[in-house]
């Protein structure tokens, strides 16, 4: 049986770029959510749109945070 070294799916030299891009996209979704909350009246808001924007905000910000930790060498 021949073992090969572990190869990560994403090259570690791209971690810093991914952290910047994913965090930026997450903040764009966050700003869209905040603008949506302040510009719409309570009766005009849709729960499905709020949940969708919140889901993508959480997805991108958490992924950006993970890649930030990996780029800094903080493995958990």
Automatic annotation (TrEMBL):
One of its GO terms (cellular component) is endoplasmic reticulum membrane. One of its GO terms (molecular function) is oligosaccharyltransferase complex binding. Its main location: membrane. The chain crosses the membrane at residues 20-39, 51-75. It comes from the Eukaryota. Pfam families: Ost5. Keywords: Membrane, Transmembrane, Transmembrane helix. GO terms for biological process: protein N-linked glycosylation; response to endoplasmic reticulum stress. Subunit of the oligosaccharyl transferase (OST) complex that catalyzes the initial transfer of a defined glycan (Glc(3)Man(9)GlcNAc(2) in eukaryotes) from the lipid carrier dolichol-pyrophosphate to an asparagine residue within an Asn-X-Ser/Thr consensus motif in nascent polypeptide chains, the first step in protein N-glycosylation. N-glycosylation occurs cotranslationally and the complex associates with the Sec61 complex at the channel-forming translocon complex that mediates protein translocation across the endoplasmic reticulum (ER). All subunits are required for a maximal enzyme activity. PANTHER family: TRANSMEMBRANE PROTEIN 258 (PTHR13636). Belongs to the OST5 family. Component of the oligosaccharyltransferase (OST) complex. This is Dolichyl-diphosphooligosaccharide-protein glycosyltransferase subunit OST5.
